[in-house]
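Deviation from plan, reported transparently: magnesium ion complex.
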Amino acid sequence: MSALATRLDAALAREVQSLAPYAQRTSASRGRRHPEPPHAYRLAYQRDRDRLVHSSAFRRLADKTQVFTGPLGDYHRTRLTHTLEVVSVARSLARALRLNEDLVEALALLHDLGHPPFGHAGEETLDDLLRPVGGFSHNAQALRIVEELEVRASQYRGLNLSLEVLEGQEARVAKPPQRSPLLEVQVVDAADSVVYDSHDADDAIELGLLEIDELREIGLWRESARRVLARGASLTPRELRRAVAHELIDWQVGDLLEHAEARLARSGIDSVESVRRAGWIVAPSPELAEPKRELEAFLFERVYRRPELVTYRRQLQALLAELFERLMRDPHRLPAEWRERFAPAESPRSIGDYVASLTDRGVRREHERVVG
Ligand code: MG
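Because the crystal trials were delayed, the predicted structure below was used instead.
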């Protein structure tokens, strides 16, 4: 047997030993739309993860807004660091549940790849502007990026990812899907919710948008603080805030694991097929679901809708809309690379793709160049 076959066989055998029976195995993959020979030493979902990390859309997440942006400082999360936090929590969940970590990592790297500049404000604006051609959503855009827009090989468009990775992102677009998504997909969804609840509260305090005392109204925060203080350490307010943010993650992840394990056992789930029929497994316990909703509603009212943020977001939205509209009138102002890649370049969808691909800084630069 060749060294290559031996290495890949060993990797596949390790999966069989280490993964739970309800995990998605690489050997059970339905493959790629454009079949490719196996790699010398990386399994299929590892290759998917690597293709995502090396994509240009992924690099641009470094300068795309998560929630906070502009003149607020540089403590807060960007779309890239948010994504890496999701990867981190999702992998912890996957390892504890003995799921396929490579697949989980690829799905987590993909989950926010379609975000346009300026976060949800940018998404709203593009959705309005593209309404006549079907609107815009970051979840659908992530699929467009990896299936159409990324340039990787001459034989096909996009990244030619494994079908399970594409299917996982499709589940985010068309909720609720007919069959339950793989546990690997559910874990990423849960991890996303765990980290944004924690980091949005943390960012909002650091940026001075929220006082730590205001968060004491919120059960989840109060209980996390109680747990931290029960360990007996004496902490400065800043240390306390960070410790509570970490505790919030740790507590939620522990709860997800316990609840998921109980549901897996109770429903006798022993295969991917039984996962497909079982409904949603990886979800917070009822005891945590309600306080999570309370925290999210609080952040929505007190932080995301603060008048100064709303005003600032409107300015960014106007900038984005002006750039889009000018490019619709003057499509020859699109960079040559985009003009050549899409015929007709002046379709609203192509111009939407271009504007959505820009970073926050890129919109300002392009606005300056095109609108002046
Ligand atoms: Mg996310």
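Residues 82, 86, 111-112, 192 surround magnesium ion (CB under 6 Å). We consider this an acceptable substitute for the interim report.
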